[in-house]
Amino acid sequence: MSNLRGAYVDLAAIRDNVKVLQNLAKNSEVMAVVKADAYGHGLIPVAKAARQGGATWLGTALLEEAISLRNSGDSGRILTWLGSPNDKWQECIDLGIDVSVSSIEIASEVIKAAKKIGKKAKIHIKVDTGLGRNGVMPNDLADLTSLLEEATANGLVEVVAVWTHFALADAPSSPTIAKQLEVLDASFKFVESRGFKNLMKHAANSAATLTSPHTHFDLVRPGIAVYGITPGGEVGKASEYGLRPAMTLKAQAALVKDVPAGHGISYGAEYVTKQNTKIALIPLGYADGIPRIAGNKGPVLANGKKFSVAGRVCMDQFVIDIGDLDFSTGDEVILFGDPAQNEPDVEEWAKASQSIGYEIVTRLGSRVPRIYLNEI
Ligand SMILES: Cc1ncc(COP(=O)(O)O)c(C=O)c1O
Questions:
Q1: What would the mean pLDDT of 148-170 be, rounded to a whole number?
Q2: To pair with 54 at 20 to 30 A between CA atoms, which of 32, 163, 286, 298?
Q3: Inter-residue contact 91 to 62 (CB < 8 Å)
Q4: Which domains occur in the chain, in start order?
Q5: What's the mean per-residue pLDDT of the chain?
């Protein structure tokens, strides 16, 4: 039998979660956001499963991510939104990947690339409606659309959407949502007034897809919910929406041994055994993405019982104090998985790490094999 250590990704959960999201946004298309190696789950297998679940779009941050998808054989619509100057614009346009534009500089890059290869670029104009991150400021929309009007007339681009991203979608009652929607609506109307037609409008991430149907428009862009993890905030548990976690992080104890009372555990002895006990050594550490800050806190399931990390998380390993548990070297532990199966929730690791579920799964390193279940 091979070593169990790895992140097990249930592709049936990905498929089912996309179906749940499509069901919530019945009149919209679903873009599964697969940036950052599909939130640490593995870009290509997850993208394939998301398509099987009904995602008509895939979304990535970096251009390289979108190019990898296309090169894997994906022939559907893909949007990529975080390109920089001198990026792989020509390759994206050539591969029929939709690109997002947030500034004159990037629009110029896209137009130049389209001209060079003699192909039309499909553009989504991203508006900063209040997030204060990427996106063109509404005041600069007139100059941007002028440039795009000219490029459209020259057959170099096709503007296909006006879109935005929320600052506080995980707080559905926040007045910022209505404010951002107002700015989006005004921006959309402005772009239409400049002669661009058949435009799509999109705004909703996971939180908005789950909680705010009036934000669904033509397309929803869930990321974290596709993986069965809650966006947090006021959204509640993922299971309340019928979503289930796709990833289970497992390992086998590399060593189980008896230690006496008063024994310091791991660097700095920040945990000291209270009585004669048994400890198990787990071969996952901060080099694998286990947060060091979760020392003495992160939950671990061993033989059906939940323990916490004892002492510091090291580069390659950490320890749990398992008392008199029936447990031997080689036995399985689960760091997080499906809370419905009594496995620790990734949210518990997020809490133990002063972080969010997003960071726990995306930070898992390349030393953690991804093992795919239920591939079709
Ligand atoms: C522009 C954009 N849309 C959608 C998403 C998906 O967000 P979430 O994972 O919260 O659903 C992200 C992720 O940060 C994003 O940057």
A1: 98
A2: 163
A3: no
A4: 11-227 (3.20.20.10), 247-373 (2.40.37.10)
A5: 98
Q: Is 167 in the pocket of ligand 1 (CB under 6 A)?
A: no
What would the two tokens of residue 338 be?
A: 């499906």
- Proportion of the chain above pLDDT 90, given as a percent: 99
In this predicted structure, the answer to whether residue 258 has a pLDDT above a threshold of 80 is yes
| Mode of pairing for the β-strands spanning 98-101 and 29-33 | unpaired
Query: What's the mean pLDDT in 235-252?
Result: 98
Whether 161 shows a pLDDT value over 60: the answer reads yes
Handedness of CA 124, 130, 136, 137 (dihedral sign): positive
Angle at 282 between CA 354 and CA 40, to 5 degrees: 55
Would you say the CB of residue 102 lies under 6 angstroms from ligand 1? no
169 Cα nearest atom in ligand 1: 10
Pocket flag, ligand 1, residue 165 (CB < 6 Å): yes
Q: Please, which residues have CB within 8 angstroms of residue 120's CB and are 6 or more apart in sequence? A: 93, 114, 155, 156, 157, 158
Q: Is the pTM of this model over 0.70?
A: yes
In this prediction, residue 2 has a pLDDT band, given cuts at 50, 70 and 90, of confident
- Rounded to the nearest angstrom, the distance between the alpha carbon of 110 and the centre of ligand 1 is 23
* 77-111 per-position pLDDT tens digit: 999 999 999 999 999 999 999 999 999 999 999 99
What CA–CA distance (Å, rounded) separates 89 from 245? 35
Core vs surface per residue 13-36: b (16+ CB within 10 A) or e: bbbbbbbbbbebbeebbbbbbbbb
Atom nearest to 165 CA in ligand 1: 1
DSSP string, 297-329: T-EEEETTEEEEEES---SS-EEEEEET-S--T
Q: Is 35 a catalytic residue?
A: yes
